[in-house]
From TrEMBL:
It is found in: Membrane. One of its GO terms (molecular function) is ligand-gated monoatomic ion channel activity. The chain crosses the membrane at residues 148-169, 181-201, 213-234. This is ABC transporter substrate-binding protein.
Length: 367
């Protein structure tokens, strides 16, 4: 009996030892299956400052460095493959690439083709414009605009009409100040002008009852009229001039706009009903804006901010704030087992002070 129990105990120990060996042996294999292929093909494209290719062919940038940290954390082996914007999505969807990294916006259309990680950067669309002249120079230019001329002519017409009324009322009883000739009409114009502006030189004054009644009505009416015309003139001088023709998205239909076809900004502009000229990349669009071929260029705010800050600071500017909503993420095949481990590594990095400092030092302060 004791011999049988000992043998049974030995068999039990052997069973558990065998099971432990199987677990230890299968664990790395299961972990490998939940990780990545031997050498991951990572699609990317030029999108400064998130993805930039140096003269030596080495990729760098905010998103590239983020992926390097994730790969190091998870033990992934990878190489970068350059493609275009559509290839970053379609290539992952058809299995050509294992992931896409860069300034890739998460949209509903792209989500139908691929899975995205947790967003690593939230932003919106920016509007780049040419810098306008200084305020005083711009103000001087606006004295010669059609709107300003119309306002001045309308004011002169009103003064002439009131001057004619004064002349008709005073020309017989007050010939010294409002004679029968054209000079009398000119005197009426002068009197209506000094009365409206409350200058009151006292060189001319109505003597008839009708002239005094007209003058009284004109004094009170001029208070309202002068305010109206002041507003018209100020509007013609300043409206949309000192800050340029575009002060927000609502002004885009009135100017020539540029963007990149197939991008998230394309979807946003199309949804809003704004037409635009297509450019192959941000640099060519900003160059067209600089030489006056277009009036505004719409694209991802951080990309525009970086390009304007580093290459076009003398000639271009960005409107303050952002428009619409964008979230950048890493594209993975649908149902990929890599999504959760990558998300964990990604979140650890983007929640760090190092990431926030990198964003601030690279993109500068957002207006």
């Amino acid at each position: 009996m004791q011999h049988r129990l000992s043998r049974k105990g030995i068999l039990s120990v052997q069973f558990w030892a065998l099971l432990l060996c199987l677990i230890l042996h299968s664990g790395p294999a299961l972990a490998q299956n939940s990780q990545s292929p031997a050498d991951m093909a990572i699609a990317t494209r030029e999108a400064p400052p998130f993805a930039m290719k140096g003269p030596d062919g080495e990729w760098r940038g905010l998103a590239i460095d983020l992926w390097r940290d994730i790969a190091e954390d998870r033990g992934y082996s990878y190489h970068f493959v350059e493609t275009d914007l559509s290839g970053m999505v379609e290539g992952v969807a058809d299995g050509t690439y294992d992931a896409s990294v860069g300034a890739l916006t998460i949209t509903s259309g792209r989500e139908q083709q691929v899975d995205f990680t947790h967003p690593f950067y939230a932003t919106g669309f920016g509007i780049a414009l040419r810098k306008t002249p200084t305020a005083w120079y711009s103000l001087f230019q606006n004295f010669f605009t059609l709107n300003f001329l119309k306002a001045v002519l309308a004011l002169c017409a009103l003064l002439l009409f009131m001057g004619l009324l004064f002349w008709l009322a005073e020309r017989r009883a007050n010939e010294d100040e409002f004679d029968h000739s054209l000079r009398g009409i000119g005197s009426g114009f002068w009197f209506s002008a000094v009365t409206m502006t409350t200058v009151g030189y006292g060189d001319k004054a109505p003597r008839t009852v009708l002239g005094k009644v007209i003058a009284l009505i004109w004094m009170f009416g001029a208070i309202i009229i002068i305010s109206t015309f002041t507003g018209m003139i100020a509007s013609s001088l300043t409206a949309g001039r000192l800050e340029g023709a575009v002060s927000g998205p609502d002004d885009l239909p009135n100017v020539a706009v540029g963007s990149i076809a197939g991008s998230a900004s394309d979807e946003w502009l199309t949804e809003e009903g704004y037409g635009f000229s297509d450019f192959p990349d941000v640099e060519s669009g900003l160059a067209a804006l600089q030489d006056g071929s277009i009036d505004a260029f719409v694209y991802d705010d951080p990309l525009l901010r970086y390009m304007v800050r580093t290459s076009y600071n003398q000639d271009l500017r960005l409107l303050p704030g952002t428009f619409g909503r964008q979230d950048y993420g890493i594209a993975l095949p649908q149902g990929s087992s890599l999504r959760e481990p990558i998300d964990l590594a990604l979140l650890r990095h983007v929640e760090s002070n190092e990431w926030r400092n990198d964003i601030k030092s690279t993109l500068g302060k957002r207006e």
